Amino acid sequence: MNASVPDAAVQQQFDDAPQQKDAAVLGMWAFIATEVLFFGVLFAAYVVCRFRFPLAFVAGSARLDFPMGTAETAILLTSGCLSAIALRQIQLDKARQSAVLLLVTALLGIAFLVLHGMEYHDEFKEGLIPGIRYLENGPGAHEMELFFSLYYVTTGFHSLHVLIGVVLLLIMAARTWRGTFGAHYHTPIEITGLYWSLVDIVWIFAYPAFYLVGGAG
Amino acid sequence: MNAAVTSADAESMGSGYLVEGGRTLWSWLSTRDHKRIGILYAVAITTFFFMGGVAATLIRLNLIYPDGRMLSAETYNKTFTFHGVVMVWFFLIPSIPATLGNFLLPLMIGARDMAFPRLNLFSWYLYMVGGLFTVAALLLGGVDTGWTFYTPYSTMFSNSNVILVVVGVFVVGFSSILTGLNLIVTTHMMRAPGMHWYRLPLFVWAMYATSVVMMLATPVLAMTLSLIGLERLAGVGIFDPALGGDPILFQHFFWFYSHPAVYIMILPAMGVVSELICNGVHRKIFGYKFMAWSMLSIAFIGFLVWGHHMFVAGQSMYAGIVFSILSFVVAVPSAIKVFNWLTTLHKGTIDFHAPMIYALGFIGLFTLGGMTGLFLAAVALDVNLTDTYFVVAHFHYIMVGGSVMAYLGGIHYWWPKVTGRMYSETIARIAAVLMFVGFNLTFFPQYILGYEGMPRRYHQYLPQFQDLNILSSIGACVLAISYLMPLFYLGHSLFRGEAAGPNPWQATGLEWTTSSPPPEHNFHETPVVTHGPYEYCD
């Protein structure tokens, strides 16, 4: 019923544009609350396992590629900053700059995924992937496998979120370039930016939890 | 408020949202109208209810004889697993929020639709996809883990259909999260002019509290079930003791969702019953603010009590004591609600129409279920009663005696609004009374069985328990008849019922000010609210 209504228009259930915008933003915040609990399970499991096997977590962390993880962190945080500037630009009605910034944000997201893929590839060669190719033996190997289990599930779900974010950012960049958004209407950019901040923040917790255990580096 | 919109008195099956927007099947399957989506849910959950009911019937038939001659141990396990999974995730969780909540919440707050109509439809499709996975697992041979999927049995021993069911529940979980999100944003953003928070009907408060639980608890279940799937598929060993993982950790995560899930089932029922009781005595609710805040407190405290499912699972004694005390605390807001309902009724002139009979049945059964919950919250008693039929009886009193009674009461009460037609009051009263009798006959003997030590989840039992089991199975037959009856007389009313008019119960509330069935966008003009709900006395 609403499909043919142009994006900028107010859908029939809302009284006016501010109400529609507030609803969209609140909806995204509520969704972020859900996501926090979703990832929260993994961090809770992390705390339990690390409390039980502190040494295995230090040993596992030492096997991760610290410079690579740090580069990924820098890339992701930069992209988060750019998405915030993109929002500012569209608020100032500078659609072209905003579109370019959104595109660069998406490209940085892709760079993050590529680097992380390279990490996964190296770990596969080293035999550090539980259940698929895990070649560690000897004392502490099982406990370290637990570390890698958590690492893969957490970073795997996080990467999935990055991928979804990249797709959203590319769509937003294209629509902004075509002139769909401007100072008067840019809610989709705002809520995409909110989502992208969630992706950032999950990584801000995951990075130290996995790469910085026991002064690794 | 009652005086508004009486002109459109030619309401019948062929009017309002039921025809506006198209009469084709596709117009229903692609609708964004919250009222139509509510009906899509109602049809779907009714189907699942009877599927789960067939499983329950098999269980009760098998338990007529102590030697379990009808179902083998393995088939029995698969039957109660199917019963549990379907009834919890595909009936109880979506029952009131996704049908009545969807249909009524925008009407009650004076909105034209939910905040996110497309997301609302998407939630329904997620529900159906989750249902397909679960039914597929049944057709491929079933799952025998119980609805709780305890590790390491579910990850290391049971068959691979576990993955299908886990995916099904994961998907339906997101349906529930998105429904909760939609209800929350709608309540915050879409209220009509003058409808401030303390003018909301208690049903809306109940939906709000439920939605908070849905949004904060369900993702925990989603991730936990993902970990089970990944453990089976890829050997991720967070719950695997062989790797140093912890099966008890699974129980913590599972109950962190599944205890609040009980409140997803009972809070909406409390909301429905509050509406039904006020209308049944035509009085203002006693202690409105206490009623509203007690629902939010139940939602909040409900997050802190999950450990009472694990008193014998090896958690520390001190954790057990803390969880026990917190579980007693939940009883306080619940008791506030029961006392306020009773005070609302006190010295009132009670109209015993069918919805009211369901509501009164709810109060009795919920109170009994809640009181026996206190037995189970006491560690010393629970050690004796856990894993017996006492527990089975307790949670069926809450979920069936509580939630299902309220759901059916709500269906009857708002039926004229949904369809524009009345049902046969006499036969509806008979069904409601029969349900109360059948329910008690089925489940009260199980309290005694549990107290005497009959364990749950076995297809056989000691011969001394046979008499009470037969009584329980007879009760189940009565209950089955009382569940089938509404299908017929409500179905009949769809085509032959007399026109209801906008407000057949002389009720307050915005949903009764519009025509029955309501027009596509609910109100011909946006209502303006000038006073609180339940202005019956003035």
TrEMBL record, chain A:
Compartment(s) where it occurs, according to its Swiss-Prot or TrEMBL record: Cell membrane; Membrane
Presence of keyword Transmembrane helix: yes
UniProt GO molecular function: cytochrome-c oxidase activity
Membrane topology: Multi-pass membrane protein
GO CC field: plasma membrane
Keyword list, A-Z: Membrane, Transmembrane, Transmembrane helix
InterPro entries recorded: Cyt_c/ubiquinol_Oxase_su3, Cyt_c_oxidase-like_su3, Cyt_c_oxidase_su3-like_sf, Cyt_c_oxidase_su3_a-hlx
Gene Ontology BP annotations: aerobic electron transport chain
Domain Heme-copper oxidase subunit III family profile: residue ranges: 1-215
Transmembrane segments: 23-48, 99-118, 150-173, 194-213
Ribosomal protein as UniProt keyword: no
Family, per entry: Belongs to the cytochrome c oxidase subunit 3 family.
Alphabetized PANTHER family for the sequence: CYTOCHROME C OXIDASE SUBUNIT III, NITRIC OXIDE REDUCTASE SUBUNIT E
Protein name: Cytochrome c oxidase subunit 3 family protein
Organism: Dyella monticola
TrEMBL record, chain B:
GO CC field: plasma membrane
Major subcellular site: membrane
Species the sequence originates in: Dyella monticola
Localization annotation: Cell membrane; Membrane
UniProt gene name: ctaD
Domain Cytochrome oxidase subunit I profile: 20-530
Pathway where this protein functions: Energy metabolism; oxidative phosphorylation
Record's keyword terms, sorted: Cell membrane, Copper, Electron transport, Heme, Iron, Membrane, Metal-binding, Oxidoreductase, Respiratory chain, Translocase, Transmembrane, Transmembrane helix, Transport
TM stretches of this protein: 39-65, 85-109, 121-142, 162-185, 197-217, 254-278, 290-311, 317-336, 357-381, 393-415, 427-448, 468-490
InterPro entries, per database record: Cyt_c_oxase-like_su1_dom, Cyt_c_oxase-like_su1_sf, Cyt_C_Oxase_1, Cyt_c_Oxase_su1_BS, Cyt_c_oxidase_su1_bac
GO BP terms, alphabetized: electron transport coupled proton transport; oxidative phosphorylation; respiratory electron transport chain
EC number(s) reported in the record: 7.1.1.9
Protein name according to UniProt: Cytochrome c oxidase subunit 1
UniProt topology in membrane: Multi-pass membrane protein
PROSITE patterns noted in UniProt: COX1, COX1_CUB
